DNA sequence: TCTGGGGTCCTAGGACCC
DNA sequence: TCTGGGGTCCTAGGACCC
């Protein structure tokens, strides 16, 4: 298998640069404003000039402004980036047989049948990068490997505007010596668990295979072991979005239904406008004042109309408020099991 | 410093059934 | 006093990713 992973460099900020070239060379910060106060919200992404100053994704806007007074702060324009993303994905898809879109700015491509070896794969990647640059003026980083995970890791190590490749004969050493924090799926919590058990490199899991399930659970243990033993062969497969959510920050932290319901209603309307079909699962998601996340949901044997969803969501919200004393900071709704039709009316007839 | 708004997959207990 | 062995579905929450 030969897999190519494509990562769009600092995507949202790069699109803003493309649309307004005078931004190039300056620190650019794309922000999600929550609307609470003038500068409340968080950084979605920043270009490399801003990263040099220390402005990174997830950082509060207030703090980013402190450390980068002269940086350019722009509001996120998701629809614009989504359109660019669709066009770029379309170009990429022409270079392989299967495209797996992992997010708005990442995709895996199976090129096994398009090239005879890894050197040809490298040539193909160069052409892909050149076409994306020429047609969309967008710079991307490409990783090439014998499976999805290796391709992603080597892309991460070659950002920005890079091309990284791991040849089949290099894979075993590469994976064995890889620091566990570099493995996709190993976050802060798993990293700490593994380090405490003396596992610092991916190769270390092989000797600890007995205790691994107890440390990280069956599925993550199998995942890490298959990687380390180089038997990981997850196929590149196109994916459908399974859930659609919409969440909004409340004007202030509260438990007052009169202040929560308008936001909940808006979330439902906007979530429904995003789905092509009718959901059979409704969840209310509440982010509490301390940013802890709670959710209550309900699934149905039939599709739930938007009107019905509003009353279902109110019941679920009440359950949350009954089961917890904290104030809510954000609230939203998540729709799942989206089918084409089949509402309650269809179900009864 | 005071914290957006999306997503995915997995776990675990209880209900329920054979 | 001892009381099987599965299986699936539902629900809530955890960890991770961008």
Tag the structure with descriptive keywords.
single chain; alpha+beta; MutS, DNA mismatch repair protein, domain I; DNA polymerase, domain 1; Dna Ligase, domain 1; 4-stranded antiparallel beta sheet; 13 helices; 41% helix; DNA-binding
Would you kindly provide a written description of the structure presented here, covering whatever features stand out?
Strand 7, helix 6 and strand 8 form a beta-alpha-beta unit. The protein starts with a strand and ends with a helix. Helix 4 (78-93) packs across helix 5 (118-136) and helix 9 packs across helix 10 (218-228). The model has no long low-confidence stretch (mean pLDDT 96). By secondary structure, the chain is of the alpha+beta class. The chain has 13 helices and twelve strands. The strands form three sheets. Strands 5-6-1-7-8 form a five-stranded mixed beta sheet. A four-stranded antiparallel beta sheet has the order 9-12-10-11. A three-stranded mixed beta sheet has the order 3-2-4, with helices on both faces. 41% of the residues lie in helices and 24% in strands. Among the domains are: 12-77, MutS, DNA mismatch repair protein, domain I, CATH 3.40.1170.60; 172-228, Orthogonal Bundle (DNA polymerase, domain 1), CATH 1.10.150.20; 244-347, DNA polymerase, Y-family, little finger domain (Dna Ligase, domain 1, 2-Layer Sandwich).
């Amino acid at each position: 298998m030969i897999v190519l992973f494509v990562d769009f460099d600092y995507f949202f900020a790069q699109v803003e640069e493309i649309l307004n070239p005078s931004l190039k060379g300056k620190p650019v910060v794309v922000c999600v404003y929550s609307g609470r106060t003038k500068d409340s919200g968080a950084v979605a992404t920043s270009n490399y000039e801003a990263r040099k100053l220390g402005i990174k994704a997830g950082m509060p806007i207030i703090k980013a402004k402190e450390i980068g007074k002269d940086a350019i702060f722009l509001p996120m324009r998701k629809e614009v980036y989504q359109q660019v993303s669709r066009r770029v994905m379309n170009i990429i898809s022409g270079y392989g047989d299967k495209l797996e879109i992992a997010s708005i700015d990442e995709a895996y491509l199976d090129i096994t049948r398009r090239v005879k070896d890894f050197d040809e794969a490298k040539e193909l990647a160069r052409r892909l990068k050149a076409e994306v640059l020429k047609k969309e003026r967008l710079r991307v980083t490409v990783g090439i490997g014998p499976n999805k995970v290796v391709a992603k890791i080597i892309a991460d190590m070659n950002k920005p505007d890079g091309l990284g490749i791991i040849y089949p004969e290099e894979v075993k050493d590469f994976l064995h010596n890889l620091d566990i924090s570099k493995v996709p799926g190993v976050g802060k919590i798993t990293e700490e668990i593994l380090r405490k058990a003396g596992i610092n490199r991916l190769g270390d899991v092989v000797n600890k295979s007995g205790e691994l399930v107890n440390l990280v659970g069956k599925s993550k243990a199998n995942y890490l072991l298959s990687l380390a033993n180089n038997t990981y062969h997850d196929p590149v497969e196109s994916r459908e979005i399974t859930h659609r959510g919409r969440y909004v920050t409340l004007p202030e932290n509260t438990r007052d239904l009169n202040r929560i319901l308008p936001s909940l209603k808006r979330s439902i309307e906007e979530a429904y406008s995003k789905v092509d079909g009718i959901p059979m699962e409704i969840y209310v998601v509440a982010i509490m004042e301390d940013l802890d996340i709670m959710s209550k949901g309900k699934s149905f044997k039939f599709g739930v109309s938007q009107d019905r969803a509003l009353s279902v969501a109110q019941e679920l919200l009440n359950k949350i408020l009954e089961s917890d004393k904290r104030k809510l900071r954000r609230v939203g709704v998540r729709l799942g099991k989206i089918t084409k039709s089949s509402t309650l009316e269809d179900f009864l007839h």
